[in-house]
Design goal:
The complex is a heterodimer. Chain A is mainly α. Chain A is about 80% helix and about 0% strand. By secondary structure, chain B is mainly α. Chain B is about 75% helix and about 0% strand.
Chain lengths: ~220, ~220
């Protein structure tokens, strides 16, 4: 075990520290996902509408998010705003802002996709049955949209968790950074710690994301 | 005081250009390897090759559910500790290929699975040979079904190259961070960063939208 550097994980409170780091990552992604879902629902409904101004503005927004690496956005918010406006944004807050900005676009696109995937005859048939506008949405459109939307938005959670690993690059002390610190601190006593610790971080991310993506796959199969 | 200093931008340009070539080189090498790997994995999964399909399944789940940054740290800092040293550039390509391979495999597989058996049967009953049927009936449809997800994967992988700076590859991100640290010309550095990523990604995104529109004819009757 010494040779693989796995012993380091069981020394002192190293494992707790790693789990604490993972919790920081999860907290950032859960907060960002919560904001993204709410904002994404609003933007997505607007995008599915007919207003040409809103449509072109949201298209530009979506395209920016589509082509800009999240890391570039992180740098802009973290370093750029300090320089231009003199704001001193905490790294964790900056990550939440950026991931929300990114997640909202993703969510909005999912909402728009789900909304326009409902065939027109669903509206017409419901109207032909004598339903009112409110009833059509409540009983016909929204349940079908949600069935398409929920598995995809659960998937967004795993993508968000994976993306939070980038927060380390602007100085958030999350699981990867904690791993680095542990390796540094044990450089003398177990020089091979890098293998064991990074393998452990790998497994921790997998343990966090895999059940969620399995659940989303299960829902997708069940509801399709 | 003006917002952006052009002389600064001009003096940084060559550095960014070199960094862009590095990003492009590693990015495309990784993506080509990912397409090959993904295609092989998709075929193994689709035709249910014994044992191999289980290994491929585990590989796909492992790499789809972990971030590239963590994978690279493991490959670049972890593996040398058990005697497997990989230089930074091949390591970047390998990391991107492994991540991309897992995503591409799922894309290709869902493309193959979307073709119903009746297509093959009809082609055969029209007198086509199996080879002709695959070439003229199955593949064209599978390809056009996969295109949107394929392009999305390519864009995703090109964006993911931004984490290469973490294993000390001098890519765009590294250059920007380095220059900000050295001279505090934050705004110029960030502007150049955005411009160069746009140069890399906008053509791919535009080509993707074009292909998507062009290939939609295969969606019969929708």
């Amino acid at each position: 075990m010494q040779a693989l550097g796995i012993d380091v994980l069981f020394k002192g409170i190293n494992m707790q520290r790693l789990l604490g780091g993972l919790w920081i990552s999860l907290r950032i992604s859960l907060i960002a996902v919560a904001f993204s879902i709410v904002l994404g629902l609003i933007v997505g409904v607007l995008m599915a509408g007919d207003n040409p101004v809103i449509k072109s503005v949201t298209r530009v927004y979506l395209e920016i998010v589509r082509v800009m690496p999240q890391m570039v956005l992180l740098f802009i918010v973290f370093f750029g705003t300090t320089r231009v406006f003199g704001w001193n944004i905490e790294a964790e807050i900056a990550s939440i802002i950026v991931f929300t900005f990114w997640g909202t676009a993703e969510m909005a696109d999912l909402v728009r996709g789900a909304l326009i995937s409902i065939p027109k005859h669903q509206y017409e048939s419901a109207a032909a049955l004598g339903m009112e506008q409110g009833q059509i949405y409540r009983h016909i459109i929204i349940p079908q949209t949600l069935r398409r939307l929920i598995p995809l938005s659960i998937n967004l959670v795993t993508r968000m968790i994976k993306t939070t690993s980038l927060a380390m690059m602007i100085g958030v002390v999350e699981v990867l950074k904690v791993g680095q610190q542990i390796i540094e601190a044990n450089r003398k006593s177990s020089p091979n710690a890098a293998f064991g610790v990074y393998a452990c971080v790998f497994v921790l991310y997998f343990a966090a994301c895999w059940p969620i993506s399995m659940f989303s796959k299960y829902l997708e199969r069940k509801w399709s | 005081m003006e917002l952006l200093r052009w002389d600064v931008i001009q003096s940084y340009l060559p550095l960014y250009r070199d960094a862009m070539f590095l990003t492009l080189r590693i990015g495309w090498a990784g993506i080509f390897a990912a397409v090959g790997l993904g295609f092989a994995c998709a075929l193994i999964r689709h035709f249910k090759v014994l044992i191999l399909q289980n290994i491929v399944g585990i590989y796909i789940e492992l790499f789809r559910n972990t971030p590239l940054l963590v994978q690279l740290f493991f490959l670049y800092f972890g593996l040398p500790r058990i005697g497997l040293e990989i230089p930074a550039e091949p390591c970047g390509v390998l990391g991107l290929a492994l991540l991309g391979g897992a995503y591409m495999a799922e894309t290709f597989r869902s493309g193959l699975e979307a073709i119903e058996p009746i297509q093959m049967e009809s082609a055969l009953s029209l007198g086509m040979t199996r080879q002709q049927a695959v070439l003229h009936v199955i593949l064209p449809q599978a390809v056009s079904i996969s295109v949107p997800a394929f392009v999305a994967n390519v864009i995703f992988l090109l964006k993911e190259t931004s984490v290469f700076s973490a294993i000390s590859l001098m890519d765009l991100m590294f250059t920007a961070k380095d220059l900000i640290g050295l001279y505090y010309k934050t705004l110029e550095c960030l502007t150049l960063l955005v411009v160069f990523y746009l140069i890399i990604l906008l053509p791919v995104s535009a080509l993707g939208s074009f292909l998507e529109r062009r290939l939609r004819y295969a969606g019969f009757g929708d």
